[in-house]
Amino acid sequence: RPFRQPRIVVDLLSALAISPIVLDMIDKELSSESFWPRKGKTNMEMLSNMGLLYTMFIKGLQMDMTPVSNRRGLKTLLFSMGIIVLPFLVGSTISGIFAQYEVHHFQSPTIFIFWGAVMASSCFST
């Protein structure tokens, strides 16, 4: 670890290095149909997303929560909850506004939860 980065950074960068996008930039033959077949691409994407989710889950279990339990813990906890809850509410509100204009994709009641989760879990809200 020459730059003292966490191991998860190295894992994610190595996964990116062998991705079809990077291999396609290097050489078109590396990401050809024989190396990354279209038929199995959906399954491969699903498995890679599950692997990323599992890795992040394990890293979350290994996280040290003692800084949250001290006197500044309540302030830290409220801030961390706020940066999730506020974008979730904004996303749900925007979805509700679009639902009033009867946009076809915004008719389902689960779309409120979907847009709330998108805003809370991505950088689009910041």
UniProtKB/TrEMBL annotation:
Naturally occurring in which organism (per UniProt): Cacopsylla melanoneura
Alphabetical list of InterPro entries matching this protein: Cation/H_exchanger_TM (IPR006153), CPA2_transporter (IPR050794), Na+/solute_symporter_sf (IPR038770)
Domain of life: Eukaryota
Bilayer-spanning residue ranges: 77-99, 105-124
Major location (coarse): membrane
Domain Cation/H+ exchanger transmembrane, residue spans: 1-121
One MF annotation (Gene Ontology) recorded for this entry: antiporter activity
Subcellular location: Membrane
GO cellular component, one term: endomembrane system
Membrane topology: Multi-pass membrane protein
Pfam families: Na_H_Exchanger (PF00999)
PANTHER family associated with the record: CATION/H + ANTIPORTER, OS05G0485000 PROTEIN
Protein name per its UniProtKB record: Cation/H(+) antiporter 15
Any one Gene Ontology BP term: regulation of pH
Coiled coil feature spans: none
Keywords: Ion transport, Membrane, Transmembrane, Transmembrane helix, Transport
Keyword Glycosyltransferase: no
